[in-house]
Amino acid sequence: MEKTANRIASFFIAQGAAEEDDRDIYVYGLTIGLSTAVNILVTAVIGVICGIPLKMLAYILPYTALRLSAGGSHANSFWGCVSVSAVIQITTALLILYTPENLQAPAAAILLAVTAALIFKFAPVEHPNRPISTPERAGFRLRARATILAEALVCLTLILLQIRVYPFCIALGAAVSGILLLPGLSGRKSRYKGGES
Fold it and tell me: How far apart are CA 110 and CA 91, in angstroms?
């Protein structure tokens, strides 16, 4: 994926739309964008195959929103990322399909509470390819916290409207993103120290 991102960055630089000095930034951004697009495409395919495309969309949107601001563990290669993502998304689809409706709202509440705790404690978790400066850290932390709170508010509203399955999907997306924050999950460490976050 990085090779493709590098080619696209070279094209932009050749066209004068980007500066050579900023190549690393463009390559990083393009890699994240392309990976996110592939992840959404894989999710859509799994959703269509399982007959739950809207529910999988309700899963991937909060996952992506939190992932972009909270960070977390990453696979060592693009295909490793696609493989792990596919397994997670198939598992998510099965949970959506087979969790009894009467358990979905309580499960959503529990998942969101645990995820909020993880977000507030660990986010943002940086990736070695994208170190986060101190001012950026504060901005990412604020966005991650605001995102999980907004997702919880949407879920609460939907539950109050007696719409149970979509809050469960949203909570699953948030939970997967939260789990990927856990230190040591793939050998990367949170910069969380004691009371600082």
Answer: 18
User: 124: alpha, beta or left, given left = phi > 0 and alpha = psi -120 to 50?
Assistant: beta
143-163 residue pLDDT tens? 999 999 999 999 999 999 988
- The reply to whether the predicted model has a pTM over 0.85 is no
pLDDT for the residue 23:
82
The one-letter code for the residue type at 47 is: G
Q: Which two tokens stand for residue 47?
A: 């959703």
**Long-range CB contacts (< 8 A, 24+ apart) of 96-100?**
96/50, 96/52, 96/55, 96/56, 96/59, 96/165, 96/168, 96/169, 96/172, 97/50, 97/52, 99/168
How many whole angstroms separate alpha carbon 168 and alpha carbon 95? Answer: 9
Which 3-state string (H, E, C) describes the chain? CHHHHHHHHHHHHHCCCCCHHHHHHHHHHHHHHHHHHHHHHHHHHHHHHHCCHHHHHHHHHHHHHHHHHHECCCCCCHHHHHHHHHHHHHHHHHHHHHCCHHHHHHHHHHHHHHHHHHHHHHCCECECCECCCHHHHHHHHHHHHHHHHHHHHHHHHHHHCCCCHHHHHHHHHHHHHHHCCCCCCCCCCCCCECCEC
